Amino acid sequence: MRPTTNRMACGPIPVSDLGIAAATGGLCQAHVIRLLSPCTDEVRKRHVHEPELQLIYVLQGGSRTNLKAMRTDDVGGFMLAAATRHSHTVLDYSADVELLEIIVPPNFKTTDAA
Predict the structure, then answer these.
(1) Bridge partners of 30?
(2) Is the whole-model pTM more than 0.85?
(3) What is the pLDDT of residues 65-74, one digit of tens each?
(4) Which string of DSSP letters, residue by residue, matches 18-80?
(5) Cα separation, 80 vs 86, whole angstroms
(6) What's CA 31's distance to the chain center, in Å?
(7) Domains and CATH numbers, the chain
(8) Which of 3, 58, 61, 83 could bridge across to 97 with cysteines, CB 3.0–4.6 Å?
């Protein structure tokens, strides 16, 4: 894994790229996200991702998310398949949270939600 830091609408996000985009010729992307503790107001900003498909699997730790009008408490083993253009807010997360994220296509837009 190659650790990098991606700059998202919700702030800098440390990720470890799994090399899937290169291996699939750009079909999809997979990386492990390790959110920095503590959760900040910048991370808590409501935002929208625009991939065709986004899968998130909680590897360890946990997070609380507000997805549309639904609040989720995501703990190790939780899987979320999110539709495109889903508005959400990260409410909080544990210091040890690690997420596996798979995205189609690998390059997508993230913006602040209105």
Answers:
(1) 102
(2) no
(3) 887 666 667 7
(4) -SHHHHTTSS-EEEEE-PPSSP-TTTTS-EEE--SEEEEEEEESEEEEEETTEEEEEETT-EE
(5) 12
(6) 9
(7) 2-112 (2.60.120.10)
(8) 61
